[in-house]
Amino acid sequence: MAKQTVTIRLDPVLVEQLDKIAKANKITRTQVIEELLLQSLEHQDEELASTFLLPRIESVLVRLFDQHLWSLRNVMIHSAVEASVSSRLNLLKFAADNAYSGDQLNELRNQAYKQAVRRLRKRGVQEDELADAE
User: Fold this and answer.
1) CA nearest 87: which of 107, 67, 113?
2) Which residue, 24, 33, 100, 119, could crosslink 104 as a Cys pair with Cβ 3.0–4.6 Å?
3) Which residue, 23, 18, 20, is CA-closest to 35?
């Protein structure tokens, strides 16, 4: 069977890499491409021919998740600030209602932190992740 011509457009960086391989092996660019294709397709049957797309799909998904999670960053920061302010106000209200001193209030807060840390440890949160909480 005669060889058929296949045309493809490549980024200049890829062409440069192909040319380097060709020069190092003293063969043509076409021979390098044929060899790379043979190696890539050697262990693939028709059903698995699409597996080369999986890394590309994975990179697209990772990029999308990063983009969307990054856009949630501000929401997470605002919610953490609001939770902190709310917690502090609740402590101050509790202290005012129960005539707690500043030291008693600090002790109450420390007990609440310790209880939260114990609960997190039970749920499998790693020790180094809790360093800031204690």
Assistant:
1) 113
2) 100
3) 18
